[in-house]
């Protein structure tokens, strides 16, 4: 259902990068620009930089990411699902260990006992 939700949202709205990341990159570059520009020119240069940077990012996503928009939900699901699979595979031994300890304790206390049975079995063989 997460896949279908992502796919529907991207189909309606289109894919845009999170503004947080764009702003973070922009702030890093602005710091470098501020260090190299005089105080008089600073505001004008930063305003121009912001416009150019946003235009460049928009053009990049339009030309590079747009053709692959339909695969983005699959990537999102894979990125979220793979760590979950890894964690569950690493921790699958924990319930087995706990149950073996619990059954050993119950057997030692006499609350349960182990019974072995042999039963007669009929098999139908093709031949």
TrEMBL record:
Keyword set, alphabetical order: Membrane, Transmembrane, Transmembrane helix
Residues passing through the membrane, by range: 71-91
Name listed for the protein in its UniProt record: Uncharacterized protein
Taxonomic path: unclassified sequences, metagenomes, ecological metagenomes
């Amino acid at each position: 259902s997460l896949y279908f939700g992502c796919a529907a949202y991207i189909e309606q709205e289109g894919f845009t990068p999170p503004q947080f990341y764009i702003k973070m990159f922009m702030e890093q570059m602005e710091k470098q620009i501020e260090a190299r520009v005089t105080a008089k020119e600073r505001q004008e240069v930063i305003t121009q930089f912001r416009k150019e940077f946003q235009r460049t990012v928009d053009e990049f996503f339009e030309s590079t990411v747009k053709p692959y928009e339909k695969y983005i939900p699959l990537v999102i699901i894979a990125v979220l699902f793979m760590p979950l699979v890894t964690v569950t595979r690493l921790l699958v031994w924990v319930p087995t260990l706990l149950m073996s300890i619990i059954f050993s304790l119950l057997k030692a206390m006499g609350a349960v006992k182990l019974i072995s049975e042999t039963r007669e079995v009929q098999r139908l063989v093709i031949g």
